[in-house]
Design brief:
4 helices, single chain, six-stranded mixed sheet, alpha+beta, globular, 146 residues
């Protein structure tokens, strides 16, 4: 089962995110993995797609808020599943940002709308993500995403 979460600060919802298990035909990154080809099968084991992260423009304050939102989300998934790998698709400019979180581009030029920059597929294993954001991960306790 996937997770759809909302981020709330002082009673104001300022963002949402969706995390889906891969390999069940519901995560869009499954199709991107097929198109990309050559992705080691081991990366598909216990894999989850992180996507649809949307933050209200009035609350976008740089990478710190994004970091906190991703930390909360990834910690929740890691605490409640056997997740070992995370995938996402994004534009190349965002892929540079996700490097800060232990993720790397594994496939480029995966299409998109005509005239738009093509998408890239990014991947991070749990160990790399924990090394990159470990100090910001919340203590291992139940987390409620609303």
């Amino acid at each position: 089962m996937g997770v759809v979460g909302a981020f709330d600060w002082a009673g104001t919802v300022f963002g949402t995110i969706r995390v889906l298990p891969m390999g069940q035909g519901i995560a869009p990154c499954d199709a991107l993995l097929e198109r990309a080809g050559g992705i080691p099968p081991a990366l598909r084991e216990n894999a989850w797609e992180v996507g649809r992260l949307v933050l209200d423009p009035g609350h976008r304050g740089g990478p710190d808020l994004l970091r906190r939102c991703l930390c909360l989300t990834l910690a929740h998934v890691m605490d409640h599943t056997d997740a070992r790998h995370f995938f996402a698709s994004c534009r190349p400019a965002l892929a540079r940002l996700y490097r800060r979180f232990g993720m790397e581009v594994i496939a480029r030029d995966l299409g998109g709308c005509p005239g738009d920059e093509p998408y890239v597929l990014i991947h991070g294993d749990v160990d790399a993500i924990e090394r990159a954001i470990g100090d910001d991960l919340p203590a291992r306790r139940p987390l409620v995403l609303q």
